[in-house]
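TA notes. Do not distribute before section.
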Amino acid sequence: MKIYNKLVRDRIPEIIEKQGKTCHYEVMSDDAYKAALDAKLTEELKEYRESGELEELADLLEVIYAIAESRGETAESLNELAEKKALARGRFREKYMLLSVEE
């Protein structure tokens, strides 16, 4: 038996059982879920940094949306906030590295 003790996507237990295996899981409390999401964010970021794969970015995005939803927001409201911020402060497309500012 392999022990995981980590947050997984909703269909993972179903997928495991379709493979003829038995899995054990529990539904977390809201506080435990929020902590697990933070841990998952770190895990997915590490995986992206190691692989550079677009699929890992998609996983990060899913975790970010779940964090927003756990705080009572929606993916759409998060995207709207990102768009507002981009309009006000720009994006990261120009590749600027701020070196210093003189007073």
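Switch to the second chain here.
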Amino acid sequence: MVLQRWQSLLLFVAVILMACFNFSSLATVGNAELVPTDYVFLWVPAAAAVLLMFIDIFMYKNLKLQMKVAVVSVLVMLAVGISAGVVVSRTEGAEFAWTGAPLFLICAVVLTIFARYCMGKDYKLLRSVDRLR
């Protein structure tokens, strides 16, 4: 059996990575760690991105809407990333931890962009098949 909807798998992995983002370390301040769940303005949009991507997996019957939701979730994740960068830069003595939350966020954004690319390929294929009818 061949998986023909790669975007579903990519979105599922992105959902898992964004869920891991919420509970991993953004930066270290002395012995303490900055975690996105400590900040409501980071946690809520990150959870919204997880929910959007999870819902997006099951929107395969409406491909145009699925593509739009993927773009919105990428924009939300980029806003979360910018907000996280601002939090870390304004926290005195914070050292950025590239092995924690930022890595999960970057990978989730890349996977969602690639899933959107796969959706576009499917959309073009469906349009070409409709022209042949």
